[in-house]
Amino acid sequence: MDTKTTEPLELMPYRIGPPRLSKESRILARFYEPLYLLRALGQTRGAHTPQPPSPNHITETRRRFLENLCFVCDFTRGGKSCTAIGLEECPDKYQFWVSSNGQNAKIAKFLEEVLEFLSCIGASTETELADTELATVNSNFVRLCAEFAKPRIEAERKLIQKQAEKCVSKIRNRMTEADGSSILIVVDNIDESHRIDLGNLVLMLENLINQKDPIRLCEFAHEHRQSTWVTDLKTLAFEDERELVPEAERSSFFSVRHYVGTLSRHIRAPRQLVEGSHNMRQILQIYTVMMVSPLAGVQLPLRDRHTNLRGIMNRMFKAHDVEKNMVEAGLVYLHRVSGVFDEFVTFYKESEGCVHAEIQVMEHFCQSQLAFAFNDRFIACSKPACLCCELYFKHHPARIVVPSSHRKVWTNWSPPRIEDFAAKEDMVIQQRQIMSKITHDVREQVIDQVLQRTSQIPWHPDSRTGITESLVTALQGISLDPQLSEVSDSDFDSDSVDSSESETWSDLEDGDVPLLA
Known about the structure:
Elements: H1 23-41, H2 57-73, E1 83-89, E2 94-100, H3 104-122, H4 131-148, H5 150-177, E3 183-187, E4 193-197, H6 198-209, H7 214-224, H8 228-240, H9 252-277, H10 281-285, E5 287-291, H11 309-316, H12 322-338, H13 340-346, H14 357-368, E6 379-381, H15 387-395, H16 425-452, H17 471-476
Parallel strand pairs: 2-5
Antiparallel strand pairs: 1-2, 1-6, 3-4
Helix pairs in contact: 1-13, 1-16, 2-9, 3-4, 3-9, 4-9, 5-6, 5-7, 5-9, 7-9, 8-9, 11-12, 15-16
Region (Disordered): 484-517
Pfam families: OTT_1508_deam
């Protein structure tokens, strides 16, 4: 192991190191310093942001179709198969440009199979399919998608059943403490009381635990996603998490409800694709599936003699900024409380960063000057964007629709690597400008949290729960923590400081300096 990754962070620059001569390495060092600080202060930076608004129903339907395609192609847990799709309009056809974080060929092949199935369905009108035929089509397509996503569903099955067992144990202990009573009265955060039948909840959880067939488990989740007992899980999760510290593991009640939603989508997304295929007939008549050539990430920077607290502060603030000493003192305080600097130095590892799938598609469209279908500059993805992807979309001059974000920090995130600086000067300048603006935003988040001495924001999953509340629940007026009452804006339920190139650098002080020179 490189000793530099384990040595404590110096507070003052006791030893002078060689200057960072490469302009690109300076830009990257100044980006990853505040990014790693932000991650050490807490990975989750807020609740999920909402889906970007669609200008009309037709656009909304098409975007949902593309997002569901991404979802059924994302066949494993984690990020390796995270899928992004951009739809290009050509003079004689449409092209589905697909990318992932590492499984392009397999995903592209499956996407072709899915689109072939849907094009056959879309060629007929809804009235030509009897109810029994439609049920068969839905069943066959769900099975096709579930078979491809088998690794993901199996992993989700193990997770939900493990958490369900914890829930049953907690409930039985509670019933024992209450002398066998199976009725629980819970008061929520607006002093509304709710009656929960613990006996029925145990029965339903045990039913869930006993589901062994992956497709049947998904069907069970889909059938019960708006049931009273799933709403009860939400209420118990709120009560269970009252005393949890933000960085703690979420309540098992929260986890079960979340996985009910994610498993349900393995039924809902294929059905919505079948339903939506009739509206996509124009696109599905003549199309091709194309893989985006993978983009390499940058080499992540290593610690050097400039990586010390005073140096970082000099690069974040101007020389006489009144907040500079306050933030430095705040970071020292937070380190004494939670070991911020110890975690910060662990992020410096010798590795190549990852260019996320949605950025690969965006850069392909921009560099190849492709035309988005129907002039809708939208890129679909199977997961909400991370914080850095959100900021990259926000500051990119192409004005692509900024995606929904889970607002979490991933330290291996990377902008695309530019191989030939001399031949691609315009791209180099554009990327410097984008990274300068992203770095400014990340620094501001670090400063805000340190000055406010706020605690970490509670962790939440990358994916949305995807459960819309039933009418009964809505009428009950339940108002819980926003992290617990998270619904999906994307999983609609059909069954809802610029910088100039002339500015100069200083290794000692760039003073929230724009990162360009």
